[in-house]
Prior knowledge:
The protein is an alpha/beta fold.
Amino acid sequence: MPVVPCLVSGILLGYFFTYFPVITIIFSILLIFAFKNNKLIAILLFISMLFGILYISITYCKDTVEPENISFTGYLKNKSGNIYEFKVSCSSDTKKTILKLYSNEPLQEGQTYKIQCIIGKKHLNPYQYGEPLCFLKTAQLEENFQKTAVDKIREKINKKIAETINKELSGTLIAMTTGERTSIPIEIQEDFRKTGLIHLLSISGAHFSLLFTVCFLIFKFLIKRLPYTVLLKITLYWKPSQLATFFTFPVILCYFLIVEPNYPTSRSFIMATLFMIGVLSERKSLWIFTVSFACLIILIFQPQAIKDISFQLSFLATAGIGFASDIYKKFKDKIPKKISYLLLSLFISISATVITAPLIVYRFHYLSLISPLANLTVGVLIGMVLFPLHLFFVVVFLITGYYPLPEVIDFIGTFSFKIMHTLASFKYSSIWIPPIPPMALAIFYMAVFITLFGFYCLKKKKTLILGFSMILVLTSILIPFFMHIKDKESLKITFLDVGQAESVVLKTPSGFFLIDTGKTGWEATQFLKAYDVKELILIITHEQKDHAGGFERILENFQIKEIWDTGYINYSKEPANDILIRHLERGDVLKVGSCSFTVLHPYKGFWSPSLSRDSNEVSLIFKFQCFKKTFLFTSDAGIDALQTIPVNYLKSEVVKIPHHGSKRSFYPEFYKVTEPEICIISAGKQNPYGHPHKEVVENINKICKIYRTDEDGAIQIKELPDGSLRVQTFKNAMFKPYEDWENLKKLFILW
């Protein structure tokens, strides 16, 4: 029995060994020593640790390196703008079943294509998650390609739900039935998130348990009503419960094949299968064995799953539920039967919420406070009434072609969603939590491990173990608390990695400013939402798309207090009338709190041979200062613009190099006067223009320390009130293999 959990522990230890070899070895020795009285487990742990280290070193790196060129055959499921989501039917280059493609040319939804594309380079920014897009090279329509029977059934179900159920409910029911989550309205997703019911939108253990229970009861009922002589012969070999389980398995398997594959679905199917095997063989298995076995199977075939958020949350929640159930069993005799089920449900909900909360806070920066109540009310209504009834109607539809009583589903669904929206509307239904350092997360889950270890493996000193765990939990809360207090009065300037474009976030004691949006505004939006930014001042230095292409996205996601520009910009979307737009020119000085912006360019009467509304020469140039250091922002300004700036205003400690480091904007005298300590170049990796140009880098490197977004990823400069500067880059914040001490220090990084 302990073999499977030990193997999983070994694989996990192998992953951590890659980055923390010394710490992992010390931890493993302590763990093995703890089992000195049980030599079998001690030996298994030692062997599994060695196996895990070897397995991860061989498979993990190989599997996580995506080939640059991808070829696959698949059909187009849906699209959003220029982003197309494909269901991969055949590919030798990628293991993914769903792939997102960026294409400028329109593709036909529902059609099958043979695609060749290039995996995009993922920009290196904090709080930026998700897979990189594949950029289309060629798309060839496959006329004779036949979809699989499973794909046709899935499409048939989704189409019927969309046609039969009202639009607000249909997207959610499709997600709960087949796992496709692309049609859920944003408002409803937000309600699920705030109430902590987002797990209902994923195919998980609850779905398989429900389906198993219903099928099992139906088959058992039918078996018991067989003729007596037939039933007597059957029971010589099989019990009715075993036979019912045997007939239920094909249903569970078909459901697993129909739904969209993901880690929670795979975990749930494997656990359901093990449970059915246990019934058939009349053997009971511990939850920790079934969970470990499901985890082991997934990790063997996809080691990279360790870093997937759905994999992590799925197994953590399951472990929390199992632990809560075991604690409940110890005290159930002391609990009145009338309230036992209610207490168990509440305890399980709280346990699953608590064990996953730090990871949710770390990744999504919010904490649902109303989750236990929501799970016991609307969660029960949706999970135990709406979904089972809907699933029964879907089965009827597959058999008869008729979906009965859609009005009933509409009524129950609308009523459930109204309750959920009411709960989500409470002021403190969920609260935003500032970004936390990785160390806080590591300490919390160390406390969880010690608690579980003490509960299951140690007969004595459980009180001491629990007390130590509580100290660790308190430490995990205090670390980010004190770090944020220390950080509150500082100035942070983050040059985001937005490819061959520019976008800079200013986090000042007075609020947030965004200088340019990049091409899409997506990177800036992700970063700002991590800080729960609701309103900001937007500065657009230049009309071209690499500076203002994400204007609409920023406008849609944030309340813009003011827009500052040069007056030469035509916006793709007209700003709301209540937004103050300031057209700036040389001589303007704007003060916001303790920070000042001094505009140096453009000015009336300026002329250049290349002058036009979107000319680089009319880019906004300004000087920014909050404490003692000054920062010079130059956008895409060319030599003609730089030559006109009064030298008295140029000296700055930090300079953003103009025009991505182009030689067309390189003016040596400019740098002799500014005398910068730090120079920032915003450019895209392997961009077609060759930016930054070699001669520019060679000359500037003699003057200042250069940081580049194409090499360093996001670059953050932090200024303390005393004027001291600290620079950190995303590349240097990433873990490096086999560097314990350096990686430990990186656990305390807070962007």
